[in-house]
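Thread: "does anyone have the structure for this chain?"

Original post by V.I.:
We have the sequence but no experimental structure in hand. Need at least a predicted one for the grant figures.
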Amino acid sequence: MASARNDVFVTVDELREHIASGRPVTLLDVRWTLSEPDGEPAYLTGHLPGAVYVSLDDDLTDHRMAGRGRHPLPSGSDLQAAARRWGMRKGIPTVVYDDWNRAGSARAWWVLTAAGIDDVRILDGGFAAWTAAGGDLQSGPVTPVPGDVDVSHDDLYRGARRTLTADQAAEAGLLLDARAPERFRGDVEPMDPVAGHIPGAVNLPSTGLLSEDGTLLPDAPLQALLADRGVTGGADVGAYCGSGVTAALAVAGLAAAGVDAALFPGSWSEWASDPDRPVAQGER
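Reply from O.Q.:
Generated one for you, tokens below.
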């Protein structure tokens, strides 16, 4: 699993060593939360040196698309223009990070790799891990030299990563719901018009994949958690959440465990928008 994990996540020590060696790297700050979707003020206060701010709502989402949930995927052409603006270059690795449960960075990782961009990794533990390790910080905006990276998929729904439509999600062999348990059960629903979950789904909160310090669970407990949710060798696994953001962490965690899971990008926000789709409530 170590090699699979290293393909998805990079530790603070590894990143610091990379930077200290003088090797180039593109750093993207993708701070976002449900309550504070604009992470730029926090970014301007302090960020990793050289990091460029990326707006999840503006750069990693295309709100012009109707019927695809609250965070529709951007087009490859729009993403390529943004990535070049961020300074992403061919052959140069990219590290994405955030300061809230790896949600923003996992979304960036999923979108960029689905577009066909190689060597993108999530900073394990995020901004908190960097500061806890005594990493240097920089304040204010960063305007990089424009990059030259190419995107090979314009339709990310049919890109380099597996996706599910709503109909496919309904028929998935194992469908994981990455939302908090109370939202899965239907006790509360702060964002969408209907409370509950897709019938047959199994709850695996994305935060459950993380240790107390915000890093991905070590190999053994990660495998045990996935096995407890029915993820076994050869299982056809899909994941969804409220709008396709935190489920990207589930996909990333599964990828780190060697499991290629599909994402339902529209997630519950797309499912619940259709009154004809069934809704389940309770634990199962």
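V.I.: this helps a lot. The chain has a mean pLDDT of 97.
O.Q.: and The radius of gyration is 18 Å.
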